[in-house]
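Protocol step 4 of 5: obtain the predicted structure for the target chain.
Materials: sequence only (see below). No template structures provided, no constraints applied. The aim of this step is simply to have a reference model before the mutagenesis design in step 5. Sequence pasted as it appears in the construct record:
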Amino acid sequence: MDYSILIGGAAGQGIETVAELVEKMIKRTGYHIFTYKDYMSMVRGGHNFVQIRFSDNELYTYDNKVDIIFAMTQETIDKHSAKLKSGGLIIGDESFVDENYLKLPLNKIARDIGNNKVIGTIGVGYIAKLFGVPKDIAKNSVEEIFKNKDVDSNIKAFEAGYEIGIQKYKLDRFEDDKILINGNQALALGAIAAGLKFYCGYPMTPSTSVMSYISKHADEMEIVVDQVEDEVAALNMALGASFAGVRAMTGSSGGGFALMIEALSLAGIMEIPIVLFNAQRPGPATGLSTRSEQADLRFVIHAGHGEFPRMVIALRTPEDAFYQTARAFNIAEKYQIPVILLTDEYLADYDITIRPFDFNKIKIERYISNENDIEDERYKRYKYTTSGISPRLIPGIAKEKLILVDSHEHNEYGNIDESIETRVNMMKKRMKKLEALKEELIEPEFIGNEDYDYLLVGFGSTYGALKETVSRLNDENIKFAALVYGDIFPFPVKSLNFYAKKAKKVMVVEQNYSSQLKSLIDEYTDIKVENSILKYDGRAMNANYIITEINKIIKNKH
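Step 4 output (C-alpha cells):
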C-alpha cells in the first residue's frame, strides 16, 4: 500500500500549512511518511508544491507518480496532471478551465464562512474523507495547527470539506510510534544533545531553519543564540565562544560558507575546535537559492588558505544528521579541529517518519585539560606531542597559567615565531592529527546483498534514493548493491576497495556536474569508475531517476 498526494499552488496560499495538516492526520493513522517540497524563492506568486507519500512500509524517497492532486491554482493542473496514476484524482476549485478534474466549490464555501484563507483547509477535509481518515483524528490536527489563529473558521472549513467528500480509499490503522522530522530539525537536535551552548549565524536558505529551531528552544536548553550581521562575524564569534570553553556552532549555505573561509583558516592555526555546517544549494553565486545540489564537496574539503586538518561528514538522513552532529562535537574537541557537516536543501527540508532518537547513545566527551596536570612550569598551548594534540586550557578557568594564541605562526608557547624549524615542526604537529583521525572514520554504509554484479557509490542525501533503487532492482533479479558515504574526509577506502573488487561495474551517483565523488575515488584509490549518474538541475534525484539512468547504461553496454 503506497499512496502519494500532491498539493500545489502559489506562494502565500498556505501550501505548507495544508501539507502539515495532511501529514499530521495521516501520521496519526500510523503510516510511514515521506514529504518532498519544491518551492520558489519568492514570498508571493510563482508555483510551489509539496508531495506527500505514505505507506505501510518504510519510505526513503519520493515517487514520480501521485494518486491525488489538490490544485490550488490552474497552473498546478497544467504542470502536474501527467504525474497522475491511472485511476487517480485531481481536485480543485470549480473556476478552473481544465475539464479533467473534480470541480469543488472551494471559493464559494470560503466566502460563506467569511474567510477566503480557508480554501486549503476545505481541501484537507475533502482529502481526509477521501482516504477514510477518522474525522476526530483529522479534526484534532486542524485544532492543533490553528489553535492560536482562526481556529473556528478553519474547523468550519474542514467540516465543510469533509461533508462534501467521498471515500475512495480505506486506510488501515497502525500504532503511531514514530516521529516526523526533517534534516535541519534533526541536525539542530543533535547539536543540542551534544551540549551546544552558543549558536550564531546569518539567515540563508536552506540553513536558516537550524537557527530558528535552536532559537525556539534556547531558553529551556540554556543556549545563547545570536543572529549576527554576516557570515564573517558568525564563524569568528563561534570561534571566540569555543575558545572560551563552550560548545559552539554556526552554519550557512555555500555563499555564506564562502565568507567564513578566512576564519576557518584561523581555526586551523589556532587549533580551536568548532562544528559548522554547509547546507548546499546550486551555485555559482545566488544560483538556485531554494533548490538542492551536492557541488560543494571539493570546496569544503579544501576550503581555507594554507593546509590544516579538518573532518568533513556528509549527512545522509535525518536520523544520521542527529547522531553525526552530536559525534562531530566530540571529534572537534578531541582533535582541536573544525568539523564540517555537509547537508543540502533536499535533506534540510524533506519530512520523514523515523524511530524516536535514543538520547542514551549520545556521549558528551569534553577534552579540556586540568591546570594541575600541566607539567611545564610555563604553559605550552601548542606543545609538540606524538599525537599532534596539545593540552587545552580554558582562559578564566585556568588561574595560574598564561594562555597565548595567535593567528601568526607561533612556537609551543603561542608566541609569534617565523623560524624555519618552528614552521616545519608546527606544520608536522598539526597535520599529524590526520593519522589518528583516520582511525575514527566510519566506513560507508553497504546496502544490498553480498551477491551483486553492480556497485553504486554515493554520499550524503542520495542515501534514500540509493536504498530504494537497490531494493527495487534486486526485486527484479538485477543484482545491485550500494555504498553510501557519511564520513567523507579524510576519505575512507577500506570498504570501497573491498566491495569494488567484487563488482563487474562501479557507478557513482551524485548531484553535481563534475562528479566530485568520482574525483576523490580517482585520487585515493585505483578503482576504475566506468559511469557517473549525475543530476544538476536543482531537483533531488529519486529511485526512478537512478533506475532510468542505469537502464541506459546497461542498454548501451549490450
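Step 4 remarks: Residues 2-164 form a domain with the Pyruvate-ferredoxin Oxidoreductase; domain 3 fold (CATH 3.40.920.10). The chain has four domains: 2-164, 180-361, 368-440, 445-557.
Proceed to step 5.
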